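Predict the 3D structure for this chain.
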Amino acid sequence: MDEEVCELCGRSSVDTTEHHLIPKQYGGTDGPVAQLCIPCHKQIHAIFTNEELAGFYHTLLRLQEHPTMEKYLKWIRKQAPGKKITIKKSNRKKGR
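Done. Predicted structure below.
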């Protein structure tokens, strides 16, 4: 069995999911995808709206350079692959 690696945080031996870099609702159904660990995938959707993802944050580099994601990635890279990670929606996305 091949070892799965998250294309965003670089951790290996993690379960990955397919993330459409341009959300499907904005025409990304057949567009580029990235294999992300579940915590990274959830973190992206907790921080950004689909409109933001389609409009600007549609590459791994742009996601990695966002200040909130930089802080998260620095932290998640230190976590064991099997550790349960809880993700909370950002206050900005909650409308606060």
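The chain has a mean pLDDT of 89.
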